[in-house]
Amino acid sequence: MHKLRVYIDTSVIGGCLDTEFAKDSKALFSLFIRGEMIPIVSEVVLQELEDAPNEVRKVLEGLTEHTVEVLRETNEVARLAKLYISSGAVPDHSYRDALHIAVATINHLDVLVSWNFKHIVNIKRIHAYNSVNIKEGYSMLDIRSPKEVLDEGV
């Protein structure tokens, strides 16, 4: 059976310590630890974690180094992220959000998960991202909250 390759943004990691999101974020991390899904982050996530409190950084460290795949920010990723902004899919000040989408798109990941309902897990924005993806010859990206990728939510 195909294991889902799941891009997790920084909000999912921080969600493990947030009362509203902890249950579902921790359940997702349990699936990663059991090897049922493959967790993927990017250099962007690692950069954002540098500014996060120590306890948030430790959440990602809880996954073994062999479990988490880290994807690089390439010129192609930066170009696609800028296209999301110039198309109006996301505002100028949300470049890092656009980078998350671009990394997941270019690397053909199964799903991107986030608790960012303003700029990422938002039906209007998802349609806008995928419109750019199609115009540029990429596949559509599935974007969900952690709750939606858990077995109970499927």
Query: What count of domains describes the coordinates?
Result: 1
Unreliable segments (pLDDT under 50, ≥5 consecutive)? Answer: none
Rg estimate, integer Å: 15 Å
CATH-assigned homologous superfamily:
5'-nuclease
Strand content: 5-15%
Kindly state the percentage of residues in helix.
40-55%
Number of helices: 8
Order of helices and strands: EHHEHHEHHEHEH
What is the CATH topology assignment? Rossmann fold
The CATH architecture: 3-Layer(aba) Sandwich
- Average pLDDT reading: 93
CATH class: Alpha Beta
Characterize the biggest β-sheet. 5 strands, parallel
The general outline is globular
Strand order within the widest beta sheet = 3-2-1-4-5
Number of strands: 5
**Class inferred from helices and paired strands:** alpha/beta
Distance between the termini: 16 Å
In a nutshell, what does this entry contain?
It contains eight helices and five strands; from the N terminus they run βααβααβααβαβα. The chain has helices at residues 10-15, 22-33, 43-50, 54-61, 75-86, 95-106, 123-135, 146-149, and strands at residues 4-8, 37-42, 69-71, 111-113, 143-144.
Task: Note down, in words, how this protein is organized.
This protein has 154 residues and is an alpha/beta fold. The protein is built from 8 helices and 5 strands. It has helices spanning 10-15, 22-33, 43-50, 54-61, 75-86, 95-106, 123-135, 146-149, and strands at 4-8, 37-42, 69-71, 111-113, 143-144. Strands 3-2-1-4-5 form a 5-stranded parallel sheet, with helices on both faces. The protein is globular. The relative contact order is 0.18.
